[in-house]
């Protein structure tokens, strides 16, 4: 089955999405997500100018070979732009292969290992009271796992807290908006949130929290220790892990489970953390980590070291990524949880999909392929709008991690 053509579709139904569509000589097509929040056009160019001309004429069934061709063949390996572009090709090809087999994609991976995929939602509020109410709303919706973020007194805006409760989108301006950060205030406040949540809702719901790369290892160790009585499902991105060995410091002090990896792109970015058993959940996802083909290898390495998957699933990952990820998650033996930040209604109509939510779980559906399509006419009504992720400074003006 030959690849006859491919095109990139950029649409902004509330936020930007980049989608690759690959056509074949058998009339089948497949789609893959190539969205890189705040840097979308670099992946568009990578695909249009370099990848698409190479893959036209190739055999669409040779997914592994095409992956290796794009990875080894570009010489400049790894990185978010390259790996998102490769992921889009890979996802579209798995979609095509599953359609050709007339099966949902998870059947090709090895079949379902579970009935459905546990997901976590995002509860957030300006203060502890509001966050408590929001967590309650997610419990009422049937969620078994909930991420909780709250505003910190004395800091004007905090990561993870938004007005649009269901559809949080941090890329909010043409130029990066400026946030202010205080580690001292955050470290004092956060345990109070989880104390309040456990006092109100007990220990049944899984509770998660995202630190978003803001602490040093010893500060992260202190936070992990102070959260131990509230038995979190995980503490995410507690430090910026450019220096991965530094995670030993956190591990030495706390048994709060750790999740890292949403900004990783290859198995090589995960290797130290997994092999040295410095994390409990790996956050790599289909779109930013080279597609199903590569994610499968990461999960295989993780399985050897008791590390479970916890795929990134913020709104900047399109429904196409979500569909592929759910097929992957239904199969992957060492599944942990899937993040599920809901897309807006406009986004959901641009990307008709077979996946559905029920009682805290998502199922990918049983449509042939990954079960997600794109309505190109509708997509064309929402042109690209430049949007950047924020930057973050300490109270004295020093540049910090957002
Ligand atoms: O855990 C998460 O979902 C995040 O850390 C994201 O909200 C992240 O900030 C965005 O994906 C950035 O585009
Ligand atoms: Mg995160």
Search tags:
single chain, 402 residues, alpha/beta, Enolase-like, domain 1, TIM Barrel, eight-stranded parallel β-barrel, 16 strands, binds D-mannonic acid, binds magnesium ion, EC 4.2.1.8, mannonate dehydratase activity, DgoD-like, metal-binding
Short description:
Its cofactor is Mg(2+). With 402 residues, the chain is an alpha/beta fold.
Can you walk through the features of this model?
Helix 5 (128-140) links the parallel strand 4 (117-125) and strand 5. The chain is an alpha/beta fold and 402 residues long. It is globular and about 60 Å long. The chain has two domains: 3-104, Enolase-like, N-terminal domain (Enolase-like, domain 1), CATH 3.30.390.10; 109-366, TIM Barrel. 38% of the residues lie in helices and 19% in strands. It has an eight-stranded parallel barrel, surrounded by four helices. 49% of the residues are buried. The model has no long low-confidence stretch (mean pLDDT 97). Bound molecules: D-mannonic acid and magnesium ion (MG). D-mannonic acid binds at residues 37, 170, 210, 212, 262, 312, 314, 316, 339, 389. One of its GO terms (molecular function) is mannonate dehydratase activity. Catalyzes the dehydration of D-mannonate. Has no detectable activity with a panel of 70 other acid sugars (in vitro).
């Amino acid at each position: 089955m030959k690849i006859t053509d491919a095109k990139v579709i950029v649409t902004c139904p509330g936020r930007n999405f980049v989608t690759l569509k690959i056509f074949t000589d058998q009339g089948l097509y497949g789609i893959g997500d190539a969205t890189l929040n705040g840097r979308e056009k670099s992946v568009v160019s990578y695909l249009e100018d370099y990848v698409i001309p190479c893959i036209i004429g190739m055999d669409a069934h040779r997914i592994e070979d095409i992956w290796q061709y794009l990875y080894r063949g570009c010489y400049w390996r790894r990185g978010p732009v390259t790996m998102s572009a490769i992921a889009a090709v890979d996802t579209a090809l798995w979609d095509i292969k599953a359609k050709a087999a007339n099966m949902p994609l998870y059947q090709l991976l090895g079949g379902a290992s579970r009935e459905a995929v546990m997901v976590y939602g995002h509860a957030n509020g300006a203060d502890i009271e509001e966050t408590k109410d929001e967590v309650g709303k997610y419990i009422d919706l049937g969620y078994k796992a909930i991420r909780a973020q709250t505003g910190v007194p004395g800091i004007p805006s905090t990561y993870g807290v938004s007005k649009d409760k269901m559809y949080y989108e941090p890329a909010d301006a043409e130029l990066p908006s400026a946030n202010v950060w205080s580690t001292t205030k955050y470290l004092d406040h956060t345990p109070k949130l989880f104390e309040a949540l456990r006092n109100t809702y007990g220990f049944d719901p899984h509770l998660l929290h995202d630190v978003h790369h803001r602490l040093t290892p010893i500060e992260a160790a202190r936070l992990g220790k102070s959260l131990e009585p509230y038995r979190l499902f995980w503490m995410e991105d507690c430090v910026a892990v450019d220096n991965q060995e530094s995670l030993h410091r956190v591990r030495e002090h706390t048994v709060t489970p750790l999740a890292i990896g949403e900004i990783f792109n290859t198995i090589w970015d995960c290797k130290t953390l997994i092999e040295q058993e410095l994390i409990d959940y790996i956050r790599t996802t289909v779109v930013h980590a080279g597609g199903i083909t590569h994610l499968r290898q990461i999960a295989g390495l993780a399985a050897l070291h008791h590390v479970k998957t916890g795929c990134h699933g913020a709104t900047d990952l399109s429904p196409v990524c979500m569909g592929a990820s759910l097929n992957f998650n239904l199969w992957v033996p060492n599944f942990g949880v899937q993040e599920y930040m809901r897309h807006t209604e406009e986004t959901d109509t641009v990307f008709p999909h077979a996946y559905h939510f029920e009682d805290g779980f998502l199922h990918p559906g049983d449509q042939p392929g990954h079960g997600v399509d794109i309505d190109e006419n509708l997509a064309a009504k929402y042109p690209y709008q430049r949007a950047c992720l924020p930057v973050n400074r300490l109270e004295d003006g020093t540049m910090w991690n957002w």
